[in-house]
Design goal:
By secondary structure, the chain is α/β, with parallel strands linked by helices. The chain has one domain: P-loop containing nucleotide triphosphate hydrolases (Rossmann fold), CATH 3.40.50.300. It is built from 9 helices and 10 strands. The strands form 2 sheets. A 6-stranded mixed β-sheet has the order 6-7-8-3-9-10, with helices on both faces. A 4-stranded antiparallel β-sheet has the order 2-1-4-5, covered by helices on one side. Strand 9 and strand 10 form a beta hairpin. The radius of gyration is 18 Å and the shape is globular. It binds adenosine-5'-diphosphate and magnesium ion (MG). Adenosine-5'-diphosphate (ADP) binds next to strand 2 and helix 1. One of its GO terms (cellular component) is plasma membrane. It is found in: Cell membrane. This is ABC-type polar-amino-acid transporter. It is a peripheral membrane protein. It catalyses: a polar amino acid(out) + ATP + H2O = a polar amino acid(in) + ADP + phosphate + H(+).
């Protein structure tokens, strides 16, 4: 699909341009032993687009995210980020991990470091930012996600929703080109889900390119430019959110939606 919207806001696809996709998967296959977890995945995400990935547990959504960040290797096919094939080991990989920010279901903060240190560590190490510059930017990012007042605390002193917002700030501190979210609210108590989703919606409004795996259909309807439905390692359906939620085409998608909505 070559469709590319010209603005990051939700709306009809209006224009095609020659800009390369920010993320492009071509013929991607991945096995875990006998299990074929990613089957001929073709997917493009353009700058400013918000792609929401849904599908039953075990359908390969996390593996897809992890492959884009090269936390998993693939057996076949190609993944490009901003036009470049994924690097091997070494410095190229650190650069990729900076360009592709990732927020996981579990909060993954460094438990023995303060919130502020969690956010400044990457920029200082990878971007060689000065302590002062890294801290100034970290505080601004923490303010953006509403947890600036937690900066001097340890992660364990924060609620799950606060920790997840710190994780978002930490990824943003690397100046990513694209953000991946793998079920970022699934491990949260219900009353904390919205504060994290709100921070994500704010990011979409700033034009961030995002790939979001989530079961939060309200978020998908509100924020997605496109929804991809995966089942058994395949992309079964790809549509704009209104079409996907009101008129799913496949039996698998209908069945999935009937259980989740
Ligand atoms: P989802 O995120 O959609 O729930 P996953 O990508 O986590 O799906 O998993 C897809 C399939 O691959 C599942 O059957 C899962 O059990 C299997 N799987 C995931 N990671 C591994 C691994 N490291 N080793 C073996 N099997 C795995
Ligand atoms: Mg998963």
């Amino acid at each position: 699909m070559l469709g590319l919207r010209t603005t990051p806001t939700k709306g009809p696809i209006t224009m095609e341009t020659a800009a390369p996709p920010l993320v492009e998967l071509t013929g991607v296959n991945k096995h875990f032993g006998a299990l074929h977890v990613l089957r001929d995945i073709n997917l493009t995400v353009h700058k400013g687009e918000v792609l929401v990935v849904v599908g039953p547990s075990g359908s390969g959504k996390s593996t897809l995210c992890r492959a884009i960040n090269r936390l998993e290797t693939i057996d076949e096919g190609e993944i490009r980020v901003d036009g470049n094939p994924l690097p091997g080991e070494g410095r190229g990989l650190a650069k990729l991990r900076a360009e592709v920010g990732m927020v996981f279901q579990s909060f993954n903060l460094f438990a023995h470091k303060t919130v502020l240190d969690n956010v400044t560590l990457g920029p200082r190490k990878v971007r060689r930012a000065s302590k002062k510059d890294a801290e100034t930017e970290a505080l601004a990012l923490l303010r953006r996600v509403g947890v600036e007042d937690q900066a001097r605390k340890m992660p364990a002193q924060l609620s799950g929703g606060q920790q997840q917002r710190v994780a978002i700030a930490r990824a943003l501190a690397m100046h990513p080109k694209v953000m991946l979210f793998d079920e970022p609210t699934s491990a949260l108590d219900p009353e904390m889900v919205n504060e994290v989703l709100d921070a994500m919606v704010a990011l979409t409004k700033e034009g961030m390119t995002m790939i979001v795996v989530t079961h939060e259909m309200g978020f998908a309807r509100k924020a997605a430019d496109r929804v991809v439905f995966m089942a058994d390692g395949q992309i079964v359906e790809e549509a704009d959110p209104d079409t996907f939620f009101t008129a799913p085409q496949s039996e698998r998608a209908k069945d999935f939606l009937s259980k989740i909505l």
